[in-house]
Amino acid sequence: xxxxxxxxxxxxxAAGSAVAVLYAxxxxxxxxxxxxxxxxxxxxxxxLPQSVTFEHYRAIFQDAxxxxxxxxxxxxxxxxxxxAVTLAMFAAYAIVRLEFRGKRLVLAGALSIAMFPAVAIIxxxxxxxxxxxxxxxxPGLIIPYMTFTLxxxxxxxxxxxxxxxxxxxxxARVDGxxxxxxxxxxxxxxxxxxxxxxxxxxxxxxxNDFLFAISLTSTNDARTVPAAIAFFTxxxxxxxxxxxxxxxxxxxxxxxxxxxxxxxxxxxxxxTAGAVKG
Amino acid sequence: xxxxxxxxILYAFWLSLFRYDLRFPEERRFVGLSNYASILGSEVWxxxxxxxxxxTVGSVAVELVLGFALALLMHRAVFGRRTVRTAILVxxxxxxxxxxxAWRFAFDPTTGFVNALLGLERVWLTERGSAFFVxxxxxxxxxxxxxALFLLAGLTLVPHDLLNAARMDGASAAQRFWRIxxxxxxxxxxxxxxxxxxxxxxxxxxxFVLTRGALDTETVSIVGYNALISRLxxxxxxxxxxxxxxxxxxxxxxxxxxxxVSFTDERRR
Lengths: 278, 269
What we know:
The complex is a heterodimer of chains A (278) and B (269). Chain A is mainly alpha-helical and 278 residues long.
């Protein structure tokens, strides 16, 4: 390959990269810009704000609705993540380490649940939750989130666990470690990256969910941020409080983006684990 | 785990056999399959199914092409590869509702920059055709990264030696792509397509935020939600749920039997 061709190629791929980055970040930049615009400038159709104000941020935190929703979102997402990942760890361990009948069935079942249309169970859940008093409560959302994320977590974790040299455990035992010590000092550190990846994916799911959140909640008691944002109301149905929505969007988006940027390698590994590589 | 999803779907099937409207609970009675008859006989369902298919096919087709471009970019780019990889995770991680709202404001004729950029005076979300365009556009933006990452994982499985050998033998870049890369990647492509098709078929958040199903843009999930939660008609809504579930099964079956997608073969490699 001559130098000229490779240079042309380099420029081509570099330009492509720039387009891809722009593509990914454009709407985020737009919503940040909207949230910083003066209320009077909101309709100026410009991409960038003429002058910067934090008025919208102050407004949403002074309102009762948004802080409550933020608290619900954080609490529900964290609890769902902790529970789903803990359960998934046992399941994935069993799948990787033990031979039992129907192992394939469990994995296939897990996959089919991951593809399950959520709208098909909101009706029954709505009815059941009203009957047992879980409607508009934290557990009322945590239970469906766990159900929908367990398959994802099991799938991811078993892909990671398969790579762990489990014989190290035996070696540690031979060297006189108790089963607990072998787990604590040998296996746990090796399993941590997988567990962590699964946790991020589960958290993103619970944090993003909208359908369950609007169907199974009705007040600030359990309504999460995506649902609250969609129901922010202005003076009339046709007048959206654009600035507040933009500010609230930024508040819930930035932490997740920061997390994604910090852990990108693991997220990519987790997303594609098991599905493509063996 | 099965109990938590299998039970509701069976319960949904059970509820779907009743006339059961929470606004008139005393009128609850067994009606057999008549809920299904009234859904399958109504225009709303077929319209929604058509809309859902338009959105699904439209977004998945474009995503496949764009996703391939992105995957190749991440595979081949000499520098900036990491930046691209990181950047395209942003659409994946962003809350769907937030993304949809961002696009809604962008396409809005009074707040948005899209019209100014294109020199148009269009009111995008008041017309069926352009509303579909915005919905599909928003879906594509949000989910192409997922497709790209799957395809990238597939690309890394294509042996370099094989491509170099073909190059030596005088195969052009296009030939190498169509004759070697694509056939070898077929399993990965099919799995990615299956995931995204089933995912797109469930589209709810984006449509809810952009049009609330107005202008005949209702999808099957919106129909189900409206019947169940807005109108509290558990009987009819459950029947819709069961039908959606049946559609999803049918799509999965079509992929697995029709196109030979196999997860077990994948895993043995």
